Amino acid sequence: MSRKKFDDDQIINKVYEYRVLSHLSQKELADAVGVSKQTILVMEKGNYSPSLKLAFRIANYFDVPITDIFSYAKGDETDEH
To answer: Which CDD domains does the UniProt entry name for this protein (predicted)?
Structure first.
């Protein structure tokens, strides 16, 4: 039986764009959604995928559907034997 590996899948986000358009600092957004400034920083750099709960908090803060800020990018699928 083989299993698919999805190691290259990514969550793409527009947190930076929404934050800047709203004239917010990373600290202000972090405080508003209950995380550290560092969390916002690494998320904006694409080095951190938020939990579903945090993704919803961010989308709710900006009053937009979650899919306006976060999207899924499918990587190469490989069979693992």
So the answer is: HTH_XRE (cd00093)
pLDDT at 25 over 80: yes
**pTM (whole model) above 0.70:** yes
- Per-residue pLDDT at 79: 52
Structural domain harbouring 65: 13-73
Question: Does residue 42 fall inside a structural domain?
Answer: yes
Residue 6 included in any domain: no
Number of domains within the chain? 1
Q: What is the DSSP string of the chain?
A: --EEE-TT-EEEE-HHHHHHHTT--HHHHHHHHTS-HHHHHHHHTTS-PPPHHHHHHHHHHHTS-HHHHEEEE----EEE-
